[in-house]
Amino acid sequence: MSESAVTSVLAGTGAPPLRVIAVASGKGGVGKTNVTANLAVALSRLGQRVCVLDADLGLANLDVVLGLTPEWSLLHVLRGERGLAEVMVDGPAGVRVIPAASGFEELTALTPADRMRLLDEVDALDGSLDVLLVDSAAGISTNVLYFSAAATDTLVVITPEPTALTDAYALIKLLASRYGRREFLVMVNMAAGSADAEAAFQRLGRVAERFLRVRLEYLGYVPFDDAVSQCVRQQQPVLLAAPASPASLALARLAERVGARPPSGPTGGMQFFLQRLLNAGGACRA
Ligand SMILES: Nc1ncnc2c1ncn2[C@@H]1O[C@H](COP(=O)(O)OP(=O)(O)O)[C@@H](O)[C@H]1O
Ligand SMILES: [Mg+2]
């Protein structure tokens, strides 16, 4: 982190704290993108100013789920071809979206001058957002780890399947050992019901707490619900297209819990997050 960012955070003179929640899973197809999109909509309806960053560089599909066809992505900002304001698009329910179809490799390869320019760009955003939700890629690649390491919270999405649990365990293990992450939020998606979800959470929680010495907090579950895939086909968040569906009711409850909970890690403005992201990249390459 730059000295000025440290000073503004310590002095409390910087922008209001931005909460950055990285949504990650290890395993693909567990519902990260849908959870991110719908949590964003729900938090926005709770009065928070929300932005989502599509960090699934290989399979960027947040825009598809939100029914958007963005022209530019974070890549154009990194290359200095577009301003961040031009790249951001308005999504449903007042949610803003930063498409990032590709570009993380470029982020870690930025020259010091490019970094300064980018930090200036995001400076304009500071104070205009309460929550940034980051939709991560599947797997445990370095870019997934960077985003979680830089975020104030990591929301781990699991399903009751054993493979989802082992992949989530691998992700948590790396975040704990490499970045000293100790607290994780966990939600269970596609559960048959509350007992099924809680059993899955307990299985993961027991081994993670015992062998990794981390703390997992259970935020709740979203049931398996056909309304979710129907809404994906219509390119609308289920929360808006089928608000009375069991999945929507559960997602709204989840958002209330996320909104009411204090952040697990240090908060700062958008610049603070970006600095942490760049530092995590630097630390990993070293
Ligand atoms: N609660 C749910 N019930 C039924 N299907 C779901 C649920 N959540 C997600 N899905 C389906 O699972 C698929 C994968 O979801 P997605 O959000 O793209 O996962 P990820 O981003 O983790 O790869 C989607 O096609 C979606 O329709
Ligand atoms: Mg996804």
Question: Helices, strands, pairings?
Answer:
Layout: H1 3-11, E1 19-24, H2 32-45, E2 50-55, H3 62-65, H4 74-78, H5 84-87, E3 89-90, E4 96-98, H6 104-108, H7 112-123, E5 131-136, H8 142-150, E6 153-158, H9 162-179, E7 183-191, H10 194-212, E8 215-223, H11 226-233, H12 238-241, H13 246-260, H14 270-285
Parallel strand pairs: 1-5, 1-6, 2-4, 2-5, 6-7, 7-8
Antiparallel strand pairs: 3-4
Helix pairs in contact: 2-13, 7-14, 8-14, 9-10
The chain binds adenosine-5'-diphosphate (ADP) and magnesium ion.
Adenosine-5'-diphosphate (ADP) binds at residues 25, 28-34, 138, 189-190, 222, 224-225, 228-229, 232, 247.
Helix content: 40-55%
User: What percent of residues are in strands?
Assistant: 15-25%
**Low-pLDDT sequence parts:** none
- The gross shape turns out to be globular
Describe the protein's architecture and organization:
- The protein has an eight-stranded mixed sheet, sandwiched between helices.
- The two termini are 16 Å apart.
- The mean pLDDT is 87.
- The chain is of the alpha/beta class and 286 residues long.
- Helices cover 50% and strands 16% of the residues.
- It contains 14 helices and eight strands.
Descriptive tags:
binds magnesium ion; globular; binds adenosine-5'-diphosphate; 8-stranded mixed β-sheet; 14 helices; alpha/beta; single chain; 286 residues
Q: What does this entry show, briefly?
A:
The protein has 286 residues and is of the alpha/beta class. The chain has helices at residues 3-11, 32-45, 62-65, 74-78, 84-87, 104-108, 112-123, 142-150, 162-179, 194-212, 226-233, 238-241, 246-260, 270-285; strands at residues 19-24, 50-55, 89-90, 96-98, 131-136, 153-158, 183-191, 215-223.
